[in-house]
Design brief:
Blueprint lengths: L4 H8 L7 H30 L3 H39 L2 H28 L1 H8 L7 H14 L1 H18 L4 H5 L1 H15 L8 H25 L12 H31 L6 H36 L3 H28 L1 H9 L6 H16 L1 H15 L5 H8 L1
Helix pairs in contact: 2-9, 2-12, 3-6, 3-7, 3-11, 3-12, 4-7, 5-6, 6-10, 7-10, 9-10, 11-17, 12-13, 12-15, 12-16, 13-15, 13-16, 14-15
């Protein structure tokens, strides 16, 4: 007896996924390209703007939407969306998958539009919350608020980019989402070199670079969604069963992600009260600690989440455990020497990459101190990145919250 049409459609949508090592390698290479270009971007920013008041103001205006991106788009939303989409892909028809994608696109887009509009209107309030130390410096505070109005729409654009990337990752198309951040670095490098000389206040060119990058990242992924036949047709439907599941999973996931992200954000809040340059020192050192975290920790976590979700949906406990075991071993093999290298070579690394133009000897020494502190927690952060998907794949977003609060 032949299968039903919808069942045949579902079977066609489930080709054999590539191996984890191969997929991790692809994501790692693309992420390495992005991180290397990110370092080039930061070298250009350091060369043109140094670690002064205008640089501090930009890093705050950039960090606020970036913080919310990690908290929401690449954090709680991705952790809730990918397992639900993987479940639909395995258990439902392609038509049902398309309906889920359309409903999520419309519901997510509406919320993001509202948040972006409110944030742009209330930019000074957000600046005061995220950098209260700037209140004593009206010029720095005003510049940060002005740039925040330009950079905040990046959250809307990059959240939709993360949504598209989640679909592509669920269908084992890892290379495109992993390459996408390269466009951010290219846009900001171009803005610093070519746009800043044309601006009355040169640093504002970087804010426009962030906005342009968000649009480039989103539109870059759309043709690949069309190839899958999953180009979203947004439809607001909060009563859709899949959307309801995602929202229920997102609430605890949001708290779980916020624990680590708020800890990192406190660096900027506290640094805003300190001497000029403190925010920039933390930014430059954080960029170096993000290199091994992104290239290895996040790359492995990105690859294993769809795989773990499929194994959980297929009730394959042994393969689920084996996948997590492989991920932990890979992180230990790479993360430990990377953390030691950052601690021992902090000052030479900072000097080699950033000691040009407006960056002083003192800037190098202070950034190196913060890099040594970041390196102490690097391995733990990498392990968290690969262990947390074990819970998210089971649609358990509460346990990581409890652990995070402790």
């Amino acid at each position: 007896m032949s299968p039903e049409p919808e069942q045949r459609e579902k079977q066609k949508a489930l080709p054999k996924p590539p191996g984890l090592l191969r997929s991790s390698g692809v994501v790692g290479i693309m992420t390495m390209l992005s991180r290397v270009l990110g370092l080039v971007r930061d070298m250009v920013i350091a060369r043109y703007f140094g670690a002064g008041a205008s640089a501090d103001a930009f890093f705050v205006a950039f960090k606020i939407p970036n913080f919310l991106r990690r908290l929401f788009a690449e954090g709680a939303f991705s952790q809730a969306f990918v397992p639900v989409l993987s479940s639909y892909r395995r258990q439902e028809s392609v038509t049902d998958v398309r309906r889920l994608v359309n409903a999520v696109a419309g519901s997510l887009g509406l919320v993001l539009l509202g948040v972006t509009a409110i944030a742009m209107l209330g930019a000074p309030v957000l600046t005061a919350v995220f950098a209260p130390g700037f209140l004593d410096d009206s010029v720095k505070f005003g510049l940060a608020s002005e740039m925040l109005r330009i950079t905040f729409p990046y959250l809307l654009l990059v959240s939709l980019t993360a949504f598209a990337g989640g679909i592509l990752n669920s269908y084992d198309r890892f290379a495109v989402p992993a390459f996408t951040p390269v466009l951010l670095n290219l846009a900001m490098i171009g803005a610093a070199i070519f746009l800043s000389p044309l601006m009355e206040t040169p640093i504002i060119a970087l804010a426009w670079g962030v906005f342009i990058a968000g649009a480039l990242q989103l539109f870059f992924q759309l043709p690949f969604l069309m190839q899958l036949g999953l180009m979203p047709r947004p439809r607001v439907d909060y009563k859709h069963e899949g959307v309801s599941r995602i929202l229920k999973l997102m609430v605890p996931a949001l708290f779980g992600v916020s624990v680590s992200q708020i800890n990192l954000l406190l660096d900027t809040v506290l640094a805003s009260f300190l001497q000029t340059g403190s925010v920039s020192w933390l930014y430059y050192s954080d960029r170096l600690s993000e290199l091994p975290l992104g290239v290895f920790g996040i790359a492995i976590a990105t690859v294993i989440l769809p795989s773990l979700s499929r194994k959980h949906a297929a009730a394959s406990a042994d393969q689920f455990a084996a996948t997590l075991d492989w991920a932990v071993r890979a992180v230990l093999l790479i993360g430990l020497p990377a953390a030691l290298a950052l601690a021992l070579l902090a000052e030479p690394l900072i000097a080699t990459l950033f000691h040009y133009g407006e960056v002083t000897d003192r800037d190098v020494a202070m950034a190196a101190q913060s890099l040594r502190a970041y390196s102490a927690g690097l391995l733990a952060f990498m392990l968290i990145k690969v262990l947390a998907p074990g819970y998210f794949a089971r649609e358990d977003t509460k346990t990581p919250v409890k652990i995070g609060i402790i």
